[in-house]
Amino acid sequence: MSTQQHTFHYQQEFSLESGLTLPGFQLAYTTYGQLNRKRDNVIWVCHALTGNSDFTEWWSSLFGEGKLYDPEDWFIVCANTLGGCYGSTGPLSVNPNTLQPYFHSFPQLTNRDIVGAFDLLRQELGLQQVHTLIGGSLGGQQALEWALQKPDVFERLVHVASNARHSAWGIAFNESQRMAIRQDPSWANDSETAGQQGLKTARAIAMLSYRHYTSYELTQQEPGNSITDNYRAASYQVYQGEKLAGRFNAYTYWLLSKAMDSHNIGRNRGGVEKALHHLKAKTLFVGVDTDLLFPVEEQRFLHEQVPGSAFALLRSNYGHDGFLVETDQLTKAIRKFYQSETINELYYEQQTV
Question: Which residues form the active site (predicted)?
């Protein structure tokens, strides 16, 4: 069984949190497996900032035959985020009102806008209940926001290496990256490659927040003692910038980093703590012990604020990226989450018979 690629077209005006609108949009999305008769086997995945809808590319150890989410058992869905550049409407898309690409005129989005678009797709697919909503990093932010917007839809939430409100530290990292893009003279232009050189530097900056001192020491330290230039670590930074610029664009990077900055589940809900009172999904919060960008204190805070939630700590040398690397640990944590839930339910049934 293989993944299937689809496109959802929404042809009505779509209102944004800013008060601006989009004249419709499309979302590219991937499905894997089939709905069962009860339609209760849905797994919905939210991807990270530079991810795409094909979760088997970047979380391959979680999805597939014989893995945690086997397509023989589950119907798995993931949509490329609104504003993205992997098939969904974004800054390089043509504005139907002008018949020209949006470029810099694409309106700013928040995670609330993005999950609003996701929910229209969910309704189009006729999915009334989702067994598990899972996302990491930016995708974790979106998953939590969505679970709060639609508390009766999502039965379980697996929230990985993310937070309830983006930190000043995280915003500072993102702004430093956008400063690099702004310094690129081409950023002022309306073209597909605007800001591309700046994007390379932005990605190099981002790597310092995604990884950890230990991971660089293990993988990029020089083996000898005589070198005085052309270090591995330096070439690695250049490589990462070039790699991203080859598959992404500066507009989407700018747009989604701003969406990450705006993440605050407490906005217009009386604060974070009050907002979390509305979370109905059985929730597993997952942190990475070396995460510099979304430090584990943020996931522990969420766990403490949500009664009955579970918490798991991944141990990794890879910092924030550990949520993509330590898939064996993550699989064990999710399995334990499901199993403990079943045990608790059986115990409750036995006590009430």
Answer: 137, 291, 320
**What are the per-10-residue average pLDDT scores of the chain (353 residues)?**
96 98 98 97 98 98 97 98 98 97 98 98 98 98 98 98 98 98 98 98 98 96 92 97 98 98 98 97 98 98 97 98 98 96 48 34
- The span from the CA of 245 to the CA of 323, in Å, is 23
Write the CATH number for 289.
3.40.50.1820
Pairing of strands 282-288, 156-160: parallel
- Expressed as residue numbers, the domain containing 226 is 171-259
Q: Write out the catalytic residue numbers.
A: 137, 291, 320
Structure tokens at 189: 């232009």
CA triplet 347, 351, 353: central angle to 5 degrees? 115
Same domain, 76 and 21: yes
Which residues lie closer than 8 Å to 323 by C-beta, 6 or more apart? 136, 137, 160, 161, 286, 288, 291, 314, 330
315 is in an annotated binding site: no
